[in-house]
Amino acid sequence: MRILLIGEYSGFHNSLKYGLQQLGHEVTLVGDGDGFKKFPVDIEVGSDYFRRDWLREKVKVAWWKLTGHNLEDNIRLARFRESEHLMKGYDIVQFINSNALGCEPPIEWQMIDYLLKNNNKAFLVACGDDYPYAQFLTEKHQGYSILTPYLEDTSLKNQYLHTFKYLKKGYRENYDRLLSKCRAIIPSHTDFQMALSDESKCAHMIPSAVIMEQLELHQNHIAQPIEIFMGINRGNYFKKGIPYFEKALDILKSKYGQKVNITIAENLPYDEYIKSYRKSHILLDQALSYDQGYNALEAMAQGKVVFAGAGTPFLKAYELEKAPLIDAKPDVNYLVQELSNLIEHPDEIFKLGKEAREFVERHHNAIDTARKYQALYIA
Questions:
Q1: CA gap 177, 109 in Å, rounded
Q2: What is the pLDDT confidence band of residue 277, given thresholds at 50, 70 and 90?
Q3: Distance between CA atoms of 4 and 308, rounded to whole angstroms?
Q4: What InterPro entries does the record point to (predicted)?
Q5: What domain range includes position 282?
Q6: Fewest CB within 10 angstroms: 41, 219, 259, 289, which?
Q7: Rounded to an integer, what distance in angstroms lies between the CA atom of residue 159 and that of residue 56?
Q8: Max CA distance (Å), the chain
Q9: Three-class SS of residue 306?
Q10: What is the mean pLDDT of residues 261-287?
């Protein structure tokens, strides 16, 4: 089959592309590389024209505040039009979400509409913020979520504009129109599966693909200091629950001193990020979800002990009695307790790291994941 993948978040579509190619399919990835992360794409439709110059960026922001329109969208649309002849005639077109190319709804729909009319079967993935997830979090969700910091302190609203935008009329209309044209929407992990429980077009969850061949088991010798790594993307600072980790790390520094070494890295391109945590034993990823994102999965594949979502919905979805990682909760004392247990019982780090690798191999291997997508495409 010829498969067109639209949009990229955290390497999601790159990893799926690899698996599909191993099965013999022709795959083309369209996107902007996910901003500073710089993931590879086959057809580049992003723009950093305004961000490259301080004054231009100020003009863009001012114009957006005055008119509600993003000047950069016109550049993105022009780049799309230049390459649109390369984006037709595919058997499958798959969107990573309903705003996969990052434009305001009217311009985004022009591109979506072209892709729908010039290709065969369409599919939508649920692997990040989108209308049903934003609606679920604000209206139905029980327990903690990425919105917890905002619900506790509404002054943080500006930190959640990306999530809340999907509740606006234009974004909701685009989502509804796109889903009506798609054969199915495919949740990539348990948080999104929960949000889509009442959606008739929701397919069975297909876990995110991880390219195991590119991620060797890399368990470092267990000796002091215990190496702890945390990566920060300022755009997701509160949604990932980073403040809970920061407070826990401050307590650990006082408690253990030179027995621990803590590395914190911010806003790194993907290749640099992967290299920066190789020496670590423990990786702190996120504390406000019920499943793992890409950074967590790739670290687990390398045998790191990861703190991320691993609550009851995750255990049920994967039919597990015990998680192969630490279920990170938004509770500083709990996080300190779990980290202390690992520091004081370092043999557990090696054991849990091996279990993590085995879990990712079993449930997230890119080729096996691609087979599940392939089966859905031809059903």
A1: 9
A2: confident
A3: 31
A4: YkvP/CgeB_Glyco_trans-like
A5: 213-363
A6: 259
A7: 23
A8: 61
A9: strand
A10: 87
